[in-house]
Design a protein that fits this description.
This protein is α/β, with parallel strands linked by helices. The chain folds into two domains: 236 residues, Type I PLP-dependent aspartate aminotransferase-like (Major domain) (Aspartate Aminotransferase, domain 2), CATH 3.40.640; 124 residues, Alpha-Beta Complex (Aspartate Aminotransferase, domain 1). 40% of the residues lie in helices and 14% in strands. It is built from 14 helices and 13 strands. An eight-stranded mixed sheet has the order 1-9-8-5-4-2-3-12, sandwiched between helices. It has a three-stranded antiparallel sheet with strand order 7-6-10, with no helix packed on it. Strands 11-13 form a two-stranded antiparallel ribbon. The protein is globular, with a radius of gyration of 21 Å.
């Protein structure tokens, strides 16, 4: 069986875990956590990177920093994971879902401005598959209407748009280090802070609402409860595992991009014949090889292809059910305008196995079986 995903392991992780245990420092913000933050800050050129317990927790922290309150509206695509919306719903916001572009599966930047109302507080672009949204257009709209931009860059660590790292273009960015991501520690995340005024409060909120970080820096003689907050600090064990991978970001990225390219080249003939559609990446984007998908004719054909691949020992999966069509999505959000592409394109999309170290012979087998399915 060719699994859809195999969590990244580069051998150095085990050594770092032993070091963390030997240091007897298992809580958050230890040596390895600080190293991870520095690695991210240097790579991304951002003001501050704080590790969190998950990408979800990073989004929830961003929603608090954005001062989202009851009655506010937040614009985002419907084609995303529930965490993207949940973070803002928890603060009392109404979600305004906007249709996607069929070429990238990202929010259609040309529809955002008309979805803005007096209640709109933030725009949340989601960089699907590590391919950037049109961030220059989105940023211009946000500036014009004085809105915050919070990037859901869960899949986009190490990806860029016009030379700028995803997660650093908006006011805040949110990463995930879940085991399905390019770099992982099982469960983990990070919030990227691109405005100085957010940093101090972010440190407080993720430390249960206390000024504990200031205490450890010697800025106060004792720490106490000063604000709302949650337990958002990643444990040192997770940070040690993650650190081993962030130190080798480029190596991992090159490998994943090579796999992505082999798929693309192998399936180009089927795309040229109009049997499938391949991913689109503009020249402005430097993606990170997070996932590779194809689009087939419709939902029925996708189901048949999934079954065919499974019978041949290949585990391929589809992705999100559009949030606006879910029980919670109907309760906590509304879809702006017409759903031209979100539902239709989501039903066509099928993700193929992609993980670090996936052998060329397995990729070739997957490509061959897809060609067999289409009689090529």
């Amino acid at each position: 069986m060719i699994n859809f995903n195999v969590p990244l392991f580069l051998n150095r992780e085990e050594r770092y875990l032993h070091q963390a245990i030997a240091n007897r420092k298992l809580a958050g913000d230890g040596k390895f956590a600080k190293r991870c933050s520095c690695l991210l800050e240097n790579k991304l050129k951002c003001k501050k990177a704080l590790l969190t317990t998950s990408g979800t927790q990073a989004l929830e922290l961003a929603a608090i920093l954005a001062a989202i309150k009851q009655g506010d509206e937040v614009i985002m695509p419907s084609y995303t994971f529930p965490s993207t919306a949940n973070a803002f719903v928890l603060r009392g916001a109404k979600i305004v879902f906007v249709d996607i572009r069929p070429d990238t599966m990202n929010i259609d930047e040309n529809l955002i401005e008309n979805a803005i109302t007096k209640k709109t507080k933030a725009i949340v672009p989601v960089h699907y598959g590590g391919v950037a949204c049109k961030m220059d257009t989105i940023d211009n709209i946000a500036r014009k209407h004085k809105l915050l931009v919070i990037e859901d860059a869960a899949q986009a660590v190490g990806a860029f748009f016009k030379g700028k790292a995803l997660g650093t273009i908006g006011d805040m960015g949110c990463f995930s280090f879940h085991e399905t991501k390019n770099y992982t520690c099982g469960e983990g995340g990070a919030i990227i802070l691109n405005r100085q005024e957010f940093i101090g409060r972010a440190e407080i909120i993720r430390e249960k609402g206390t000024n504990r970080v200031k205490f450890f820096r010697g800025e106060v003689d004792k720490y106490t409860w000063v604000d709302i907050g949650s337990s958002g600090v990643l444990s040192e064990l997770n940070a040690a595992y993650l650190c081993a991978q962030l130190e080798q970001m480029e190596k991992v990225k090159r490998n994943r991009l090579a796999i992505w390219q082999r798929y693309y080249q192998g399936l180009t003939l089927l795309a040229d014949q109009g049997l499938i559609t391949l991913p689109f990446v503009s020249q402005a984007c430097e993606h990170n090889g997070h996932l590779f998908y194809i689009k087939v004719k419709d939902l029925s054909e996708r189901s048949k292809l999934v079954d065919y691949l499974k019978k041949n020992g290949i585990y391929a999966v589809f992705h999100y059910m559009p949030l606006h069509s879910t029980i919670a999505g109907r309760k906590y959000g509304r879809f702006y305008g017409r759903d031209r592409f979100t539902t239709k394109e989501s039903q066509r999309l099928l993700r193929l196995p992609l993980y670090y170290g996936l052998e060329a012979k397995k990729i070739n087998l997957i490509v061959r079986k897809i060609k067999d399915f289409y009689g090529q």
